[in-house]
Write a structure and sequence with these properties.
14 helices, single chain, binds magnesium ion, nine-stranded mixed beta sheet, alpha/beta, 16 strands, binds adenosine-5'-triphosphate
Length: 398
């Protein structure tokens, strides 16, 4: 018997949508197709409550499953085998799956997606369980913590049998929630923040501020490497590189040292907003987490918000550094972020920034700056780079 592999994808939150479910599923299917497009022929099908990737004659079914596990909206994915819905065919594939495998305990988890199938799931569990026991006489049935769980999903036209089901990221498919402009430093936090917005269905536009030629171009290289990694989750990305050194020099001339961090951040927000709006962004996102550093107090966050005409989303606000670092490691951004470099915020930045600036203090600090011209200067100097995955072709448009 030739095994017919397929990846079976389950979703959770997408399934909770009512009227919009077809739209969410279309995005999920399209993203699954895109994420696996370089691996070989994949035929996608929507079945009740699942998406199926038919992989007959596919050279790398496991790689397809691993890619599916990195698609936002996927609750779980498993490499399954397709058989006709007869008990004999099910037994044949179950036999193949347990062949050569040692396990002390197991369970069969049968589910019928349509109730007119002549056997109930209890009967299927019993029949197939007895069959496994014949093949592996030393194994016992354990319904609670089995070493091996054999899933049998009976659909009208065929049945899917699989053993190992892995958890995906969950959330919503990228493209269903609009665009946000994420302020991406070379640090640990902002890449995680950008990813969390993707996981809520957003397409992320990246904005990085650098201080070339006052500082080396390392921060840009890090931003590129981070965007490249994060593009694996949204397939196409745009990175805007904004020269900020000249703007900081202007700030230094008139703004007292303790106020500079908040003034820099407010300028970044204004520039990111202008660049983002021009590309359809409906919000900004940052990697701020309450209390983590001096600029991240409630007072300073309020001052930063007051500079923006778009909502500023802070998905990490309630997370602590250990949790954020754990996510960064899992994403593969951590190794890039910890590469040493000098962020533009280390340039002309005081050792003791003000932690609780009032509106009056910020107004006084910015009084002698020509804000519109600084914002225009930042926007005019921005360069755009595009990234894509899986193709990874990169085009630079200046
Ligand atoms: P991160 O780890 O993301 O750098 P952080 O803990 O260092 O964050 P801050 O330096 O206060 O915190 O920066 C707060 C947020 O401001 C960052 O998460 C990022 O969204 C934004 N930001 C800071 N520097 C830059 C930059 N050079 N370019 C773009 N955004 C920046
Ligand atoms: Mg930082």
């Amino acid at each position: 018997m030739k095994l017919r592999p397929a990846v079976i994808v389950h979703y959770h939150e997408v399934g909770l949508k009512r009227g919009n479910r077809p739209l969410f599923l279309r995005h999920l299917a399209r993203n699954l197709a895109r994420a696996t497009s370089d691996l070989g022929p994949v035929h996608l099908r929507q079945l009740s409550g699942r998406i199926l990737l038919d992989l007959d004659d596919h050279p790398a079914p496991e790689t397809v499953r691993d890619r599916a596990l990195r698609v936002c909206g996927v609750a779980s994915a498993a490499l399954a085998y397709r058989v006709p819905s007869s008990l004999d065919a099910m037994k044949a594939v179950v036999g193949r799956l347990v062949e050569g495998r040692t396990f002390a305990s197991f369970r069969i988890t049968a589910r019928r997606a349509f109730k007119t199938y002549p056997m109930t799931s209890v009967e299927l569990n019993r029949e197939l369980g007895a069959f496994v026991l014949q093949r592996a006489p030393t194994a016992r049935v354990d319904l609670h913590e089995p070493e091996l769980e054999i899933h049998v999903e009976v659909m009208p036209a065929e049945t899917f049998v699989y053993t190992d089901r892995f958890a995906g990221p969950g959330g919503l498919p990228v493209g269903t929630a609009g665009t946000v402009a994420a302020l991406l430093s070379g640090g640990i936090d902002s890449p995680v923040a950008a990813w969390r917005m993707m996981k809520r269905g957003c397409r992320v536009l990246f904005v990085h501020f650098h201080s070339v030629p006052y500082l080396p171009a390392t921060s840009q290289a890090k931003a590129r490497a981070l965007v490249e990694r994060l593009t694996e989750w949204q397939y196409e990305s745009c990175l805007l590189l904004v020269p900020f050194g000249e703007i900081q020099r202007e700030v230094v001339l008139t703004v007292p040292p303790p106020a500079r961090v908040v003034v820099y951040r407010r300028l970044m927000v204004r520039i990111a907003e202008a660049l983002g709006r021009a590309r359809g962004a409906q919000a900004l996102a940052t990697g701020e987490s309450l209390g983590q550093v001096a600029s991240q107090t409630l007072e300073n966050i309020a001052r930063i918000d007051e500079a923006a005409g778009l909502p500023i989303l802070r998905p990490l606000i309630g997370m602590d550094k250990l949790e954020i670092t754990g996510q960064a490691r899992w994403l593969g951004t951590f190794e890039i972020s910890i590469e040493p470099d000098q962020d533009c915020c280390t340039l002309f930045t005081p050792r003791h920034p003000a932690t609780r600036m009032s509106q009056e203090e910020v107004q006084a600090a910015e009084a002698r700056l020509d804000l519109p011209s600084l914002v225009a200067q930042g926007c005019a100097g921005a360069t755009v780079e595009t990234f894509d995955f899986p193709a990874r072709a990169r085009v630079t448009v200046v």
